[in-house]
Amino acid sequence: MPEPETESTPLSPETKAARAGSFGGAASLYERYRPGPPTAAVDWVLPERVRMVVDLGAGTGALTRLLVGRAEEVVAVEPDDRMRAVVAEAVPGARAVAGRGEAIPLPDGSVDAVLASSSWHWMDTVPTLLEVARVLVPGGTLAAMWSGPDPDSGLIAQAQALLRGEGAGDAAGAGIDAQSQAALSAAISDQNNLISALEIPTGAPFDQPEQTVITWDVALNADELIGLLGTFSWVILMEEEARERLFDTARRVLRDMLGVSGDVTVDIGYRADVFKARRQG
Q: How far apart are CA 193 and CA 197, in angstroms?
């Protein structure tokens, strides 16, 4: 099975491209199990209605939905045909177009705000910054946000501790082998490994970004937690047998070590790291 990269082993260009392109193959799962950013994040980025806003790397439109009604025109820019088809059907109030961070199909100075939700890290930073600056009006807003389960909260932290052999519970006693423990532990922390900051290099025409952090809880049952796990890029790219083995391990940890099975739900702590920067000029 492929080993997930950690913060100490950055993604190679080939792996990054493969993982970035993997989500279209799980578009329906992504739509069902990946929650979008909280409304509070969009309120902070866009406190007032604007003329045109872009959701960059829109995926299946979790953020796009929240932008409808906040602008006269909402444009969802998404490179994957399968993901774009979902957002076009699910969010008829937005215009879904083919494009990517480095090539946004809009005129110069035509956009008031560009937002990227859990997609900025897949883009080539400097070319994307220059392209966003091209389409933004002077004083326009660039925002990047990452949202997902908080690995330091509640059940997520408890599961990590159990898999490391800390605290009550015994992963080996629950029939979970060392390789499965390591794979599941990596899967739990995978979301956090991809979270990064919006960094503005010298010469890019943006002010240095502001940041806010928003936390909230989402009640999920075992099936929903497994469904969420299945939307992570390196899990999508697994061979089917290895992926099913990982899901089986996760179910056993949830049932035998954490008491989550059937219709039982547990509050999962979520966190959104939100950055915004003003276009100079």
A: 12
Computed over its alpha carbons, how large is the radius of gyration of the chain? 19
Nearest alpha carbon to residue 105 among 54, 71, 164: 54
CB-based contact 65:59 (threshold 8 Å): no
Phi, psi dihedrals of residue 232, rounded to the nearest 5°: -75, 140
The average pLDDT across 231-249 equals 77
Residue type, 126: V
- Both structure tokens of 189: 């922390």
pTM: 0.78
Rounded Cα–Cα distance for residues 70 and 89 (Å) = 19
- Residues in a beta bridge with 53: 74, 113
- Residue 187: pLDDT over 80: no
**pLDDT mean across residues, the chain:** 82
Q: Please state whether beta strands 50-56 and 111-117 pair in parallel, antiparallel, or not at all (unpaired).
A: parallel
169 to each of 160, 253, 256, how far by Cα in Å?
Answer: 12, 10, 9
Q: Which of 210, 204, 209 is nearest to 281 (CA)?
A: 204
User: Higher pLDDT residue, 281 or 64?
Assistant: 64
**Calpha distance 169→161 (Å, rounded):** 10
pLDDT computed for residue 212 by the predictor: 97
Indicate the residue type of 148. Answer: G
- Identify the bridge partners of residue 172 per DSSP, sorted by sequence position: none
Both tokens of 186, joined, read 């990596």
